[in-house]
From TrEMBL:
Species: Shewanella algidipiscicola
Keywords for the protein's UniProt record, in alphabetical order: Hydrolase, Magnesium, Manganese, Metal-binding
Top-rank taxon: Bacteria
SUPFAM superfamilies: Nudix (SSF55811)
Keyword Cytoplasm attached: no
Cofactor: Mn(2+); Mg(2+)
CDD domains in the record: NUDIX_CoAse_Nudt7
Domain Nudix hydrolase residues, every copy: 27-159
Family annotation (Pfam families): NUDIX
Name of the protein in question: Coenzyme A pyrophosphatase
InterPro entries per UniProt: CoAse (IPR045121), NUDIX_hydrolase-like_dom_sf (IPR015797), NUDIX_hydrolase_dom (IPR000086)
Length: 194
């Protein structure tokens, strides 16, 4: 999928700064950058792998992002700040397209997925305290529903869908895979999933 095709299917307008969702401090809030970059006329999704020494979600695949901090005026500010801190992505190198609805996790977070286009290649500098690896996945791979798996698991008597996306040596799962699945279903006009 090309950048123009993505923008046409995504069909979100830029969020005006004064209309961006404001932070409410009642929950453990976080924001992630669902960042896409064009390589050889095809969009790729940027993902990171967390270090295994971390207490929370060690070794898991995630979007650049993290917890909301006091200086963040909105979720976009959080996602862009975290992307700069984790992978040295300059904030002015991201064209923000919009935000998906908040995503609640079983671990007690509510996450704002901020969708943005990385305008050009940049010098990647990983923060070793937060990121072990950065890699990209072609959006065409993710759009193929055969590459996305959903299984149901029960926790405390409640059944939950858990998403998995195997890609090369990586296993993308949990909240990251669920957000990818939602985006892919929207882009494919297939809202029949779970």
């Amino acid at each position: 999928m090309t950048l123009d095709e993505f923008k046409q299917r995504y069909a979100l307008q830029l969020l005006p700064e004064d209309n961006a969702p404001k932070i409410t401090r009642s929950l453990r809030e976080a924001a992630v950058l669902v960042g896409l970059i064009e390589k050889e006329h095809e969009l790729h999704l940027i993902l990171t792998r967390r270090p295994t020494h971390l207490r929370a979600h060690p070794g898991q695949i995630s979007f650049p992002g993290g917890k909301v901090e006091a200086q963040d005026v909105d979720y976009t500010a959080t996602a862009l700040r975290e992307a700069f801190e984790e992978i040295a992505l300059p904030q002015d190198n991201v064209q923000v397209l919009g935000q998906y609805p908040m995503f609640n996790t079983l671990t007690g977070f509510t996450i704002a997925p901020i969708v943005g286009i990385i305008k050009q290649e940049f010098e990647i500098i990983l923060d070793p305290g937060e990121v072990d690896e950065l890699f990209t996945v072609p959006l065409s791979f993710l759009l193929n529903p055969d590459n996305r798996v959903m299984k149901r698991f029960t926790r405390r008597g409640i059944s939950y869908p858990v998403y998995f996306i195997p890609y090369n040596q990586h296993m993308i799962w949990g909240a990251t895979a669920a957000m990818i699945d939602k985006m892919c279903r929207q882009l494919s006009n297939d809202e029949m999933g779970c």
